[in-house]
Amino acid sequence: MFLKLKTATAAIALSAMGSAAFAADLVINFDDLNPGPKKGFEDAVAQFKAENPDINVVVNINDREAHKTAIRNFLTADAPDVTSWYPGNRMAPFVDAGLFQPVDDVWEENGFNEDLAAIKPTMSRDGKIWGVPYSYYQWGIYYRKDIFDLLELEEPQTWDELLAACGKMKANGVTPFTIGTKFLWTAAGVFDYLNLRTNGYDVHNALTAGEIKYTDDRIRATFANWETLINECGFVDNHASMSWQDAIAPFANGDAAMYVMGNFSVDGYKNAGLTEDQIDFMPFPTIDASIPGAEEAPADAFFIPANAKNVEDAKKFLAFVARPDVQTQWNKTIGQLPINSKADISDDKFIQEGFALLNGAAGLAQFFDRDAPAAMAKAGMEGFQEFMLDPSKVDAILTRLDTVQEEVYK
Amino acid sequence: MTDAVQHPQAAPSWLKRNKLAVAPWIFLIPALIFFAIYVVIPIFESLWLSLYEWNGLYGPDGESTAEWVGFANYAKLWDDPNFWTSLRNNIAWLILYMLAVPLGLFIALFLNQTVTGMRFYKSMFFFPFVISQVVVGLIFGWFYNPDFGVVGTVWKAIFCEETTNILGNVTFTCSRPAPDILSSPEWATYGIIAAGLWPQIAYCMILYLTGLNNVAADQIEAARLDGAKGWKMLWYVVVPQLKPATFIAVVVTVIGALRSFDMIAIMTQGGPFGSTNVLSHYMYEVAISEYGERYGYGSSVATVLFGIMLFFISYFLWRMYQDEKGGR
Questions:
Q1: Nearest alpha carbon to residue B51 among B24, B26, B23, B75
Q2: CA distances from B242 to B101, B132, B228, B237, B252 (A)
Q3: Distance (Å, rounded) from C-alpha B319 to C-alpha A86?
Q4: A385 pLDDT tier (thresholds 50, 70, 90)
Q5: Measured between CB atoms, which of A238, A249, A382 is closest to B180?
Q6: Fewer CB atoms inside 10 Å of the end CB: C or N, chain B?
Q7: pLDDT score recorded for residue A23
Q8: Do B178 and A182 touch (CB under 8 A)?
Q9: Cβ neighbours around A182 below 10 Å, total
């Protein structure tokens, strides 16, 4: 009895903490318990184990929100050898506190500088590269193809075509856009696209890096376009009390025809009863033809904590997750896009379109709340929501955002 | 007292002599230790932390990355419109939450009669206090929902007509849009307070019901003989006897109003754009939530809230002390 208890405790301690690491243990913390992403990760780990039988891989999979809290402790207290996290400004606090270690050599040795070139700026900070991405997904406009067909509309390529299409939808009692801004970030997607199309990738980066003000004329132009979008296209009523999932209801019912969203939402449409023939994807239309098209493509990545005990094997794992064949398989499982340009993609039509779109993109933004520091992102997104409810408050909102900006980036 | 009793044998040990004085402290020690670790020390820690700027991270060597900024966090609070919104909402909560006391009293008076099945009615009225605040928040969130909630459904019945949309699916066109209480910066706070009042009224009601059991029947009788009835009876005879119950009801309501957090977190997350925040939720938002990570600033918000609570709690403790001194 006593012995049993002892082994049981030991087993629990081992599996729960993963801290009792031996020389060849490789502890990996991963942050997604949803069935698809979990399977993608576990399959990859199984393959890694098969290729490296001498490494004893210990994985701790946590829920996404719990991981966001836990990482703040475990990087110092009980660091794994590899952890999943997000690039862009989301990694900045950890990089600045010296909690991640640079992995430039992994990129150098494996030719990632070429194969992962598009994402390199996002993975870099202070002139060093801090992690290796394994997956990303595209943003754009998901629309009801059946409604477009009924109204004999083509995918609008330009701003004017979009506004014209909206006019036709409204004349037929269809609200052009659905959105749910209760949790704020969806509004940031619309803002980012309007800003990327009005001013381009560099202005997006300069804004989220705090180099230009919100009252700048270029940002005002973005908001002017947004006001046009609200007036001439329009979003569903009550969007401030809906989550992004709630906002699928009017889309599925045919009351609204378009949704500015990320590719993860496709599952939601299908669960709401829509078939692949009823929905389609288009890039956000061009506003200024002289501006090269940049896209939103948030990436997920792996990092090595500064306190990692088994750095050598951790680097092996990082090199492994960016390999074309691994990324191909992994992203097929989770329904996202591989970042390695040599990888293959699944034959899902949304993935196909997304891959073409992102490969031709002039720049990849990580999303407003990943590119801007947390406090700025929060204030910014609240401002966007307020603007969507009452565009006439634009001056007060932008002035307030300038105050926050001064505070956050000082 | 121990001095008075003389033992002829060997002088008793110090412990024996002071048994009565020491025993309570020995029993209190475990509680005091935990109270110190989980309440008192953290209070001082967060007071101290409010003088730093800190993103909650430790360096790889375990060194805190906090930076001393003195009273800069408080200076920032002064200029922070979100802080003032939160404070204003806290005051709105305090004032409107007080409605729970008279409403609880009236429900208690109403339920304080002998009718068949009264126990059942009492338990139904008490029910909202038993369920979790989170559940109350969810229920009211749905209640207010302009699409499928009670508010939305009633509105649709009055102002909307059922039509079919372009795809032939049923939809509604309204002559005026349904009120979206929880997304309106003006009304959302009142919507949440109304939800919060529901369980709070039940709480006050139960306090008054027990109080009413102790109302002296002879005094009522005497007052009746003197011709008192209705409001006068209530105000001059019943309410004064309910003073202890009223005191407790006010205390729990004030504290309940100041620590309102669950409902806001469930119903609006402080939104739309921060207009329903209260200090406790704002503190959570700037320090602990996903977009927070400003622990020093969050601590300064917590300190302000602590100051307000301290004011009320000191007053209540002082009142209780006065009452006890009065020898009741």
A1: B75
A2: 12, 28, 17, 9, 16
A3: 54
A4: very high
A5: A238
A6: N
A7: 52
A8: no
A9: 21
Task: Indicate whether A9 pLDDT > 50.
Answer: no
Asked whether the beta carbons of A146 and A154 are under 8 A apart, the reply is no
Whether B272 and A94 lie within 8 Å, measured CB to CB: no
Taking only the tens place, the pLDDT of each residue in A44-74 is: 999 999 999 999 999 999 988 889 888 988 9
Nearest chain A residue to B293, by CA = A374
The pLDDT, as a whole number, for residue B42 is: 94
Question: Tokens representing B1?
Answer: 């007292």
Spatial distance between the Cα atoms of B198 and B68, rounded to a whole number of angstroms: 44
pLDDT higher than 80, residue A10: no
Q: Do B272 and A386 touch (CB under 8 A)?
A: yes
Average pLDDT value for chain B: 88
- ipTM of this complex: 0.78
In total, the C-beta contacts within 8 angstroms joining chain A to chain B are: 114
Residues of B in contact with A311 (CB under 8 A): none
8 Å CB contact of B183 and A147: no
Q: Give percent above pLDDT 70 in chain A.
A: 94
Q: Is the full-model pTM beyond 0.90?
A: no
How is residue A9 written in tokens?
Answer: 């405790």
Q: pLDDT category, B6, cuts 50, 70, 90?
A: low
Q: Does B64 touch chain A (CB under 8 A)?
A: no
Structure tokens at A99: 């909690």
Q: Is B44 on the interface with A (CB under 8 A)?
A: no
Note the residue count of chain B: 328
Q: How many CB atoms lie within 10 A of CB A139?
A: 27
- CB nearest to B291's CB, from A72, A98, A374: A374
pLDDT value, residue A15: 44
Yes or no: say if A215 and A383 are a contact pair by the CB < 8 Å rule.
no
DSSP state of A235: B
Nearest CB to B166: which of A150, A183, A403? A150
Structure tokens at A343: 């990888």
Alpha-carbon distance values, B19 to A41, A137, B9, B26, B268 (Å): 65, 73, 18, 10, 56
Residue A324 · residue A338 · CB < 8 Å: yes
Shortest Cα distance, chain B CAs vs residue A3, angstroms: 33
Chain B closest-CA separation from residue A340 CA (Å): 30
Q: How far apart are CA A191 and CA A401, in angstroms?
A: 14
Using the predicted structure, report yes or no on whether residue A18 has a pLDDT greater than 70: no
Beta strands in A40-161 (DSSP E): 56-61, 82-85, 124-125, 128-129, 131-136, 139-144
Residue B236 has pLDDT above 80, yes or no: yes
Asked if A237 lies within 8 A of B55 by C-beta distance, the reply is no
Name residues 81-120 of chain B within 8 A of A (Cβ).
81
Would you state the pLDDT for residue B252? 93
pLDDT (average), residues B11-36: 90
Whether the bond between A305 and the residue before it is cis, its omega within 30 degrees of 0, is no
pLDDT tier at B196 (50, 70, 90 boundaries)? Answer: very high
CB–CB of B271 and A98 under 8 A? no
Residues of A whose CB is below 8 A from B182: 241
